[in-house]
């Protein structure tokens, strides 16, 4: 079976060409065809001789996943895509429109092992990691279908990106140098994998790092996010401080407000203690409710925002998008697997 050439980085493209007896610079040309020009067939690589194109096609395929289902919210234009991979597994990507351009939320794993109580994508656990090409494919497929350019990428879909560290870093570098998406327009969200945060600080990247916080009380955070039992609150905060010191890049803390759980006055007080005087940012999120839990969206969001703002905290409330579709991460994929089982 031939290997898929899509997803190879510049160094791999150069090594591939050298292995075929070609000059190293041909690797850069191949890289440009795959990502800058987004060619669909080897025959489109017109600055390669027919004999070179044949040598490549004899050993490699140029394959892409496919969009199976699209859901569109008629109110805000948000679209969710169910994408079928080559092995018939499914992932999701979500397109959102903002004043600054089109933003795509991408998945990094098929399923997820984090076990967060408010997330549909973790039900059933992780099946496998995605390779860099499968993550890049989400951008490729949506741009092709919608005939637009993705300007921002949020690595916040199905999966924990820092558990698929090397493929995610490879994806970021190709998305930047190949697709031309600026590093500062790429955001990565993690549940708090401390070794991954420490490694990321050494990568010399200018991306935005977000931490799924959701509670400042360690025991409550562990109830919501079982991974917090492995990576406790204080060591996580120490890793975040070290990341900021090393990179100079502020961190965003994601906080989904849950009725009666993390929206109390004492939660406000502890958040003020944590963030007062820091350059970091708190992003309040309206909970996307799922059938599997009784957790409900907080009715105190505006009050919560007002109190934090009054105390000088750098805080915003994320505009809730996709209300008319299966907006919660993993919902559409879960429905597809349920449909397959019921057939």
UniProtKB/TrEMBL annotation:
The active site is at 92 (proton acceptor), 329 (s-methylcysteine intermediate). GO terms for cellular component: cytoplasm. It is found in: Cytoplasm. SUPFAM superfamilies: Radical SAM enzymes (SSF102114). GO terms for molecular function: 4 iron, 4 sulfur cluster binding; metal ion binding; rRNA (adenine(2503)-C2-)-methyltransferase activity; rRNA binding; tRNA (adenine(37)-C2)-methyltransferase activity; tRNA binding. It catalyses: adenosine(37) in tRNA + 2 reduced [2Fe-2S]-[ferredoxin] + 2 S-adenosyl-L-methionine = 2-methyladenosine(37) in tRNA + 5'-deoxyadenosine + L-methionine + 2 oxidized [2Fe-2S]-[ferredoxin] + S-adenosyl-L-homocysteine; adenosine(2503) in 23S rRNA + 2 reduced [2Fe-2S]-[ferredoxin] + 2 S-adenosyl-L-methionine = 2-methyladenosine(2503) in 23S rRNA + 5'-deoxyadenosine + L-methionine + 2 oxidized [2Fe-2S]-[ferredoxin] + S-adenosyl-L-homocysteine. Pfam families: Radical_SAM, RlmN_N. It comes from the Bacteria. Its EC number is 2.1.1.192. The keyword Flavoprotein does not apply. Residues 98-324 form the Radical SAM core domain. S-adenosyl-L-methionine binds at residues 159-160, 189, 212-214, 288. Its cofactor is [4Fe-4S] cluster. InterPro entries: Aldolase_TIM, Methyltransferase_A, RlmN_N, RNA_MTrfase_RlmN, rRNA_lsu_MTrfase_RlmN/Cfr, rSAM, rSAM_sf. The keyword Disulfide bond applies. PANTHER family: 23S RRNA METHYLTRANSFERASE, RADICAL SAM CORE DOMAIN-CONTAINING PROTEIN. HAMAP family: RNA_methyltr_RlmN. This is Probable dual-specificity RNA methyltransferase RlmN. It comes from Acetobacterium wieringae.
């Amino acid at each position: 079976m031939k290997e898929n050439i899509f997803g190879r980085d510049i160094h791999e493209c150069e090594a591939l060409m050298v292995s075929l007896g070609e000059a190293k610079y041909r690797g850069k040309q191949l890289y440009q065809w795959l990502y800058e020009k987004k060619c669909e067939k080897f025959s489109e690589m017109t600055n390669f001789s027919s004999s070179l194109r044949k040598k490549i096609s004899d050993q490699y395929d140029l394959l892409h996943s496919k969009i199976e289902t699209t859901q569109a919210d008629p109110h805000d234009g948000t679209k969710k895509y169910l994408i079928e991979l080559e092995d018939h597994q499914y992932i999701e990507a979500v397109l959102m429109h903002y004043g600054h351009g089109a933003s795509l939320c991408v998945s990094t794993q098929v399923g997820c092992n984090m076990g967060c109580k408010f997330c549909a994508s973790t039900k059933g656990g992780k099946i496998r990691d995605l390779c860099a090409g499968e993550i890049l494919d989400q951008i490729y497929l949506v741009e092709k279908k919608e005939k637009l350019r993705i300007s921002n990428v949020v690595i916040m879909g199905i999966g924990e990106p820092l558990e698929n560290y090397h493929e995610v870093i490879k994806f970021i570098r190709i998305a930047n140098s190949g697709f031309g998406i600026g590093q500062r327009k790429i955001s990565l969200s993690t549940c708090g994998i401390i070794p991954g945060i420490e490694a990321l600080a050494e990568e010399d990247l200018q991306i935005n790092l977000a931490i799924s916080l959701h509670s400042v009380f360690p025991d409550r955070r562990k109830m919501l996010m079982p991974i917090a039992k492995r990576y406790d609150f204080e060591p996580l905060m120490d890793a975040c401080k070290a990341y900021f010191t090393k990179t100079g890049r502020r961190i965003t803390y994601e906080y989904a407000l849950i009725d009666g759980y993390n929206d109390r006055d004492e939660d406000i007080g502890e958040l003020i203690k944590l963030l007062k005087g820091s350059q970091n940012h708190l992003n309040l999120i309206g909970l996307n409710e799922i059938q599997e839990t009784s957790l409900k969206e907080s009715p105190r969001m505006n009050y919560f925002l007002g109190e934090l703002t009054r105390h000088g905290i750098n805080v915003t409330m994320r505009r809730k998008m996709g209300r008319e579709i299966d907006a919660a991460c993993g919902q559409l994929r879960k429905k597809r697997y349920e449909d397959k089982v019921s057939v």
